[in-house]
Amino acid sequence: xxxxxxLAVRLAGEAAAVIRAIRADGFxxxxxxxxxxxxxxxxxxxxxxxxxLRTAAPDIPVVAEEEVAAGRITLPGARYWLVDPLDxxxxxxxxxxxxxxCIGLIEDGAPILGAVASPAMYELHxxxxxxxxxxxxxxxxxxxxxxxxxxxxxxVFASRHYQSAPELAACLARHKVAHLINIGSALKFLxxxxxxxxxxPRLGRTMEWDTAAPQAILExxxxxxxxxxxxxxxxxxxxWENPNFFxxxxx
Length: 251
What we know:
Elements: H1 2-25, E1 29-31, E2 37-39, H2 40-56, E3 62-64, H3 65-69, E4 79-87, H4 89-93, E5 100-107, E6 110-118, E7 123-128, E8 132-137, E9 140-144, E10 154-159, H5 166-172, E11 177-183, H6 187-193, E12 199-202, H7 208-220, E13 224-227, E14 245-248
Parallel strand pairs: 3-4, 10-11
Antiparallel strand pairs: 1-2, 4-5, 5-6, 6-7, 7-8, 8-9, 12-14, 13-14
Helix pairs in contact: 1-2, 6-7
C-alpha cells in the first residue's frame, strides 16, 4: 500500500507541473461528445499518469477519464485505478484556480487510497485506508483530520455550478448552516478532510473518477461519503456514474 501511495503522489505532482506549464503557455478548449470541455492539459496529464501507473504496477488496471471518452474501455479487476487528470476543467478553462489532479485506487468497490494535487495552489493531499491523510504545501507536510460539526452549525462546501439549484436549497434547509462556500472540483472534499468544513452535498452528475481519490482522502481523515440511503459511496457502477451523495466530516 505504501509503495502504491508513493507512486500516486509522485505522478499527481508531476501531472500538476505539466498542467501549470500548459496554463502558462496558453491553450485551446475543445468540447467532447458529452458536451464537457477538454484541453491539452487534460490529455497530457492523463498520458503521464496512465503510463506511470501501467509501468510501475502493470497488474493493476487503469480506468482514466479521457481514455473512456475516446472509447478505450479497460475492464476493472478487484483492484483498479481511477484517474481524473484534470478535475474541474471548466474552472481551469475559465482561469480559476479550483482544479485538481485525482488518482484513486479501488479495492472490492471501496476507495482505499488517493492522491489529489491542486496545481494552482501548489498543494497535494493524499491518504490511505487505515493510515490517515496528509497535506503537502511547499516543504511542509502535515497530517489532516476531519472535524466534528461546531455548535454554530455546518460550514458547507457546494458546487459552484449547482449553487442555484432548488434541490440544494431544499437539502440545506434541513440543517443548521453557518456558512456556505461555493467552489469547484475535488477541493470540496479536501476542505472537509482538513477540518475546514463539515458537509458537501452533491445533487448533480459526477463520475467515479471525479470522486475516488478525494473520497479515499476524506475517509482516511475520518470523514464519510454516503448515498441517499446512508450507504457508503461505492465503485464499479454501470457507466462509471455516481448517484447523488453527501460528503461529511466527522459524523
